[in-house]
Specification:
Elements lengths: L1 E5 L5 H10 L3 E5 L2 H5 L3 E4 L4 H10 L3 H9 L4 E4 L1 H5 L1 E5 L11 E6 L9 E6 L9 E6 L3 E5 L4 E6 L12 E7 L2 E4 L10 H18 L2
Parallel strand pairs: 1-2, 1-3, 3-4, 4-12, 5-6
Antiparallel strand pairs: 6-9, 7-8, 10-11, 11-12
This protein binds glutamine.
Glutamine binds next to helix 5.
Length: 209
């Protein structure tokens, strides 16, 4: 099982390192041929407008859309979450996403005062102590379709901790996983482990036909 990390821009090395610690064979993906070689993909945090632009230039936009359509497991953190959204608000007019998750995300949603912040979140499917999440000019999810499972929320002013009125910052739809925060920067690898498990499950299902 090989997991690729989309290596056009962003914190590629941190994801490669996190996956290696989770005992997953991880390699950078920059070309369509390298995409063909992997079973799953991680889209790093960085700048979604740049990742969008470079994925068009490197001929990866359509091939990644096709692989997602064929069921390839993908995990996107922050800018990677934006790339997995069916709809992006406050993007550049020409910004493209791969799509795959039936959701609307808003870029840089938390606003200037809280450009970057950290929060302890309860994440569905990640047992144990709360997850210490690092947010950097993060998006949030404003709309989800019926097939999307909410895995975590961040409380906003006036909301109850872990209450249903917090902003959605972690979701899953089938083989696609996305977080508005950066577990690759926090030293807690439970989200990466969860993704590796999801990839293994997807492969077992394919093998069993
Ligand atoms: N604000 C960035 C974007 O729009 C995402 C920031 C991040 O990945 N840390 O892509």
């Amino acid at each position: 099982m090989k997991i690729g990390v989309l290596a056009l821009q962003g914190d590629v090395r941190e994801h490669l390192r996190a996956l290696a610690i989770c005992d997953a064979a991880a390699q950078p993906v920059r070309r369509p041929g390298e995409l063909d070689d992997v079973d799953a993909l991680v889209i790093p945090g960085g700048e979604s407008t740049t990742i969008s632009k470079l994925s068009v230039e490197f001929g990866l936009l359509e091939p990644i859309r096709k692989r997602i359509g064929d069921g390839m497991p993908v995990y996107g953190s922050c800018a990677g979450m934006i790339m997995l959204a069916a709809e992006v608000l406050d993007g550049r007019p020409d910004q493209q996403s791969f799509g795959g998750i039936d959701m609307t995300v808003r870029r840089n949603a938390f606003g200037r005062q809280v450009d970057s912040f950290e929060a302890d979140l309860t994440l569905a499917g990640v047992p144990g102590q709360p997850f210490h999440a690092v947010f950097i000019r993060a998006p949030w999810v404003e709309r989800i379709g019926p097939g999307v499972e909410v895995l975590g929320r961040v409380p906003v002013a006036g909301s109850v901790p872990d209450g249903a009125d917090g902003r959605i910052v972690a979701v899953r739809q089938g083989n696609l996983l996305a977080t508005a925060f950066h577990p690759e920067l926090a030293g807690d690898l439970r989200v990466h482990r969860r993704f590796v498990e999801l990839v293994r499950d997807a492969q077992t299902r394919v093998a069993e036909g």
